[in-house]
Specification:
The protein has about 190 residues and is α+β, with helices and mostly antiparallel strands. The protein has seven helices and four strands.
């Protein structure tokens, strides 16, 4: 695509890929458990979430948490503590299962029966770019009505799919859409 940046930041511009900003905002809307997994309370909350139903257990196993029921019971009872690698697996499984569980509700709220959601796109930071190399990139708003592919890719953890789905939506900005490949923030609410 002609608008894709090859050497972003060459002259000092700062920002993140816009689809990563969208993923951050979706993560913020999910409402994960705030207590870290390294604290007993956070560990127990995640383990209860991952083991409360048979469906949750199956989803946790599919997401990578493959320990025996005996080990899970020992962790829940406090007789043993998970290793650092298992703590990471628990966190990853928790986030994957939570995303999967919340995705359809989030999708319904973002689509709002076809009305969509207003998105604010904050341009990249050019404060470190020399004056002659700076370009005019203004704050933009856009109403996105088709969140299906975006939320589906986010829930699956598909970074490339999320990028493609997001680009398909921001081409509505017209010929300037490529200027918003890197941004400082993308904001929306559901």
């Amino acid at each position: 695509m002609p608008e894709r940046n090859i050497e972003f930041g060459l002259y000092g511009a700062r920002g993140i890929k816009s689809h990563e900003a969208v993923a951050r905002q979706l993560d913020a809307l999910v409402g994960y458990i705030a207590t870290p997994v390294t604290v007993r309370r956070g560990l127990l909350a995640r383990l209860h979430y991952l083991t409360c139903t048979d469906h949750a257990r199956a989803a946790a196993r599919e997401a990578g948490l493959t320990v025996t029921d005996r080990t899970l019971k020992a962790w829940l009872d406090g007789k043993r503590s998970p290793s650092r690698a298992n703590l990471e697996r628990i966190e990853q499984a928790y986030r994957a299962v939570r995303r999967e569980n919340v995705a359809r509700y989030l999708l319904a709220r973002l689509n709002r029966e076809g009305r969509g959601t207003r998105v604010e796109i904050h341009p990249l930071n050019q404060s470190q770019v020399e004056r002659p190399r700076q370009r005019v990139v203004e704050f933009r708003t856009l109403n996105i009505r088709g969140w299906d592919r975006i939320v589906e890719a986010w829930a699956a953890g598909d970074d490339r799919g999320l990028d493609d789905a997001w680009v398909d939506q921001i081409v509505d900005l017209g010929s300037q859409w490529g200027q918003y490949e890197y941004v400082t923030n993308v904001g929306f609410a559901a």
